[in-house]
Amino acid sequence: MNHTDQRFSSRLGLLLCVLGIAVGTGNIWRFPRIAAQNAGEDGAGAFLVAWIIFLFVWSVPLIIAEYALGRKGRMGVIGTFAKVAGEKFAWMGAFIGFVATAIMFYYSVVAGWCVYYLIKMASQPLPLSADAAQSIWNGFQSGGMPVAFHALAMGLGAVVVWNGIKSIERANFVLIPALLLIVLISVARTLTHDGSAEGIAFLFTPDWSTLSNPRIWLEALTQNAWDTGAGWGLILTYGAYMQSRHGVVKNAVITGVGNNTVSLLAAVVIFGTVFAILGAQMSKAEVLAVMQTSGPAATGLTFIWMPQLFAKMPAGNVFAILFFLGLSFAAFSSLISMIELTTRILVDLGVERRYAILGVCLVGFTLGVPSAINLNFFANQDFVWGVALMISGAFIAFAVIRHGATRFRTENIDHQPHDWNATRAWDALIRYVIPTLAVVLLTWWLYQAAAVYAPDRWFDPFDPFSVMTCLAQWGVVLVLLIALNRRLARRTLETAGQADGPGS
Predict the structure, then answer these.
(1) How far is the first Cα of the chain from the last one, in angstroms, to the nearest whole number?
(2) Residue 404, helix vs strand vs coil
(3) How far from 336 is each of 29, 161, 325, 342, 343, CA to CA, in Å?
(4) Which CATH superfamily includes the segment(s) 11-498?
(5) What confidence score (pLDDT) does residue 27 get?
(6) What is the pTM of this model?
């Protein structure tokens, strides 16, 4: 079977797979921490407002574009850019693919952490103190276990994607409903905690003064990009397997709103649980400090604090298992989409699918090992390629602009049966708002990083959080891909031509 010719069996199958992209550790692990870090004295509600604004002016328009680009191109990111934007811009698609692949290298490590903690919570008593929780984490990190579980995650991912989109669809029919059920059970349990209402109220109470800080807006945008998968090229890749009759606008709105709903529910669980358990012995400021103190590579809240908090509640073992089971499902559903994106790029370049999968998983494991054994390296990669998602989003918008936004909309989005129209408002967002946001926020971030956060280290490419480490890594990748542009474009389009030819 030619796996490039496969299609999703149903609209529900497509939505579950795309929700598998969107609903990941960014919702359960990252979002509550980012909300806490950007809260004011009165609460985190103002950050939520900025976050929701970016859902509709950044994420949903880009998700619409990705669905439509994938369905039109019927290829991965490189081939789609060569087809839609023109051959000389194939390097942009290649950069988007590289960013998602670079995230895959260390994301597999996180998936391994989740599986390890699931097994640990199910097999041993919960830690009763911060020292005991820290001891579990230190014991895990000090040996070869992170590498072993990273290998396990990549191997399981290879198994799922082996038979193409059909096996991915079957996996997400199990993972996503189970994950949503776990989240709902966790919310219900949280609401029964004495003191949880204070944490939930703090989450939704706005401190409007915080919106004057540009950092809030940058964090809200990057969190939306991370949360929803907008601009990653992952939805574009799944869009290549859409049935032609499936519209894109409703799917995009359901994807974005569904994802953000899960993020809010996860935040309700985390804020409610932390405030309920710690509120009796700490002030609100101290409780918030616990949530804001992320620990090494932003691991503290999830892997050190949550296990000991579960130990202090009735049936804590059960809910600890459910929490890390949900986190594992979320991580794995996102990981398989990253493996599929890179696999599809190689298939488009003429590599047989089974060899492409083996190559992706072998290289993914090898290049993920540094993140598995060194948390500073992990944090650097998360920093560099997380910020690069803004560039990826701008490139997606560029492909549509290059083709002609209005023309692209009328030919590929609007007037679909049983779907909504994107209208001219989408044209304006793609043409003006998204490029402007990308330029302004990237410029502001570069200035802040150089002048405020690390004025004495911004030029050091070996500093894990300097401006130069981002510019150096992005620059090397961009120069290489631009140099290879012609070869990548021609090879991809030739392979597509052969697949479309007689006897394919």
Answers:
(1) 10
(2) coil
(3) 18, 7, 17, 10, 10
(4) Amino acid/polyamine transporter I (1.20.1740.10)
(5) 83
(6) 0.92
